[in-house]
C-alpha cells in the first residue's frame, strides 16, 4: 500500500513542488493549508501534472492552529510521516508583527506535534532555513556552525528546531529531519507551478521576474560595497525541484534507516552566486534587460552564505543537480506562462 504523507503548507511554493514529486514517487498525499499565502489553483495544477497519480492527492483548507480540524484529518487517515512547510516567512513583516509570527509558526507547530503524538505518527520533516546561521564567520556553513537568528522569523525557525530536539530527547520514537534550505528559486520545468508572492516580493528572484515581465520598473540592489567578487551579496541558490527531491530523500531515510534520530541537514548546492551574477543569468535566460537601482545594504543582510553539502550527500544520498542557468530558464518559463502568478492582473493605480 502507498505510504501516506501529510503535507502542511502544501499549496505554497516549495510545498506544491514537493507534493508533485511525492505523488510521482507513489505516495498518497494529504495537503492542509489555510491559503494565507497561496492559492488552491496550485493544488489543482499539481494534481493535473501528476497525471494518473493525481487521484492520490487530497486537500483541506485548514489552519494548523485549529487542533479540532487537524484531529479530524488524522482520524480519517493514518499517516506514515508529516512534512511541515506551513508558516509565515517574510522577514520584514516578522519584525513589524512578531506576535503574529511566534503565534502562527510556533503555536502552529506545537499543535501539529501534539496531534501527531496523539495519533502515533512520529516522523516529521521540518522546513528550517539557512537563516538560523545568521551572518556566519566561517564558510561554508555546516550543520555544526554556530546558530544565531537575527529577526523574529529566524527565531521561530531556531525555536522550532529546539522544540524538535527536545521532543526527540524526551521520546526517542520521534524521528525528525530539520532541513535548512538555502535560497530556493526557479519553478517546475512545465511552467505550470512556481512562486507567486503576494504584494511586493521580498526576495531577489521573484523581484527580478516581476521586472522582466513588466510588472515593476526596476530592481533595487541592496549593497554594492560588500567584500565579495563584485561587491554584491552572495547566496546559495537552489532549484526548487532539487529542494523538493531533498524531501523525498529525507522520507526514504526515515523508512530505510531505523537509527534516524533528530538531525539537521543543509539543502543547498555549495556554490555562491552574487546578485549581479544572478541578474546577468536572468537577462540571458529571458532576453530582457533588467534596469537596476544601486542602493544601500538591506539591514540584517549577511554578506555571503553558502552551504556545506557533505552531510546531506552522505546521509540522505541527495545532491542538487541543477545550476543557475536551469534555475533562471525555469523561472522565466513560469513567468511568461503566468505573468500574474495564479491570480488576475492587479488593477491599475
Ligand atoms: P509559502 O508561503 O509559499 O508556503 C507556506 C504555506 O503555508 C502557504 O501556502 C501558507 O498559506 C501556508 N500557511 C502558513 N501558515 C499556515 C497555517 N497556520 N496553517 C496552514 N497553512 C499555513 O512559502 P515557501 O517558500 O513555500 O516556504 C515553505 C516553508 O519553507 C516555510 O516554512 C518557510 O519558512 C520555509 N523556508 C522558505 C524559504 C524560501 O526562501 N522560500 C527558505 C527557507 C525556509
Ligand atoms: C532572505 C531572508 C532570510 C530568508 C531568505 C529565504 C532577509 C534579511 N533575509 O534572505 O531570512 O531565509 O530570504 O526566504 O530578508 N536583494 C537585492 N534586491 C532585492 C532583493 C534582494 O539586492 O530586491 C539581494 C539581497 O541583499 C541578498 C540577495 O539579493 O544579497 C538575496 O536576497 P533574498 O532573496 O532576499 O534572500 P536572503 O537575503 O538570502
TrEMBL record:
An example of a Gene Ontology cellular component annotation for this protein is: cytosol
Q: Name one GO biological process term.
A: galactose metabolic process
Reactions performed catalytically: UDP-alpha-D-glucose = UDP-alpha-D-galactose
Q: What is its EC number?
A: 5.1.3.-
Q: Name one GO molecular function term.
A: UDP-glucose 4-epimerase activity
- Which family is this protein grouped under? Belongs to the NAD(P)-dependent epimerase/dehydratase family.
- EC class, as a word, reads isomerase
Does this entry carry the keyword Isomerase?
Answer: yes
Q: What name has this protein been given in UniProt?
A: UDP-glucose 4-epimerase
Amino acid at each position: 500500500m502507498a505510504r501516506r504523507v501529510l503535507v502542511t503548507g502544501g499549496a505554497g511554493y516549495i510545498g506544491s513542488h514537493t507534493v508533485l514529486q511525492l505523488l510521482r514517487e507513489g505516495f498518497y498525499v494529504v495537503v492542509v493549508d489555510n491559503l494565507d499565502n497561496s492559492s488552491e489553483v496550485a493544488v489543482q495544477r499539481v494534481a493535473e501534472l501528476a497525471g494518473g497519480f493525481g487521484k492520490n492527492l487530497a486537500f483541506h483548507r485548514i489552519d494548523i492552529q485549529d487542533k479540532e480540524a487537524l484531529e479530524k484529518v488524522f482520524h480519517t487517515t493514518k499517516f506514515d510521516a508529516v512534512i511541515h512547510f506551513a508558516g509565515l516567512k517574510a522577514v520584514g513583516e516578522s519584525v513589524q508583527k512578531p506576535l503574529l509570527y511566534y503565534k502562527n509558526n510556533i503555536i502552529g507547530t506545537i499543535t501539529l506535534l501534539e496531534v501527531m503524538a496523539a495519533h502515533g505518527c512520529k516522523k516529521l520533516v521540518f522546513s528550517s532555513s539557512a537563516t538560523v546561521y545568521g551572518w556566519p564567520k566561517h564558510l561554508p556553513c555546516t550543520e555544526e556552525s554556530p546558530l544565531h537568528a537575527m529577526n523574529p522569523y529566524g527565531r521561530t525557525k531556531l525555536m522550532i528546531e529546539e522544540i524538535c530536539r527536545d521532543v526527540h530527547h524526551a521520546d526517542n520514537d520521534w524521528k525528525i529531519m530539520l532541513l535548512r534550505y538555502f535560497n530556493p528559486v526557479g519553478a517546475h520545468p512545465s511552467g505550470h507551478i512556481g512562486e507567486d508572492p503576494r504584494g511586493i516580493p521580498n526576495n531577489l528572484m521573484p523581484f527580478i521576474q516581476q521586472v522582466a515581465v513588466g510588472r515593476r520598473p526596476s530592481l533595487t540592489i541592496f549593497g554594492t560595497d560588500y567584500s565579495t567578487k563584485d561587491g554584491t551579496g552572495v547566496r546559495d541558490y537552489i532549484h526548487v525541484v532539487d529542494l523538493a527531491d531533498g524531501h523525498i530523500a529525507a522520507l526514504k531515510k526515515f523508512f530505510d534507516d531505523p537509527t534516524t534520530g533528530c538531525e539537521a541537514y543543509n539543502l543547498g548546492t555549495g556554490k555562491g552566486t552574487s546578485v549581479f551574477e544572478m541578474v546577468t543569468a536572468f537577462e540571458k535566460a529571458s532576453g530582457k534587460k533588467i534596469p537596476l537601482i544601486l542602493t544601500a545594504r538591506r539591514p540584517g543582510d549577511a554578506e555571503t552564505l553558502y552551504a556545506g553539502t557533505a552531510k546531506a550527500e552522505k546521509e540522505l544520498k541527495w545532491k542538487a543537480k541543477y545550476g543557475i542557468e536551469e534555475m533562471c530558464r525555469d523561472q522565466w518559463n513560469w513567468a511568461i506562462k503566468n505573468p500574474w502568478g495564479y491570480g488576475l492582473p492587479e488593477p491599475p493605480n
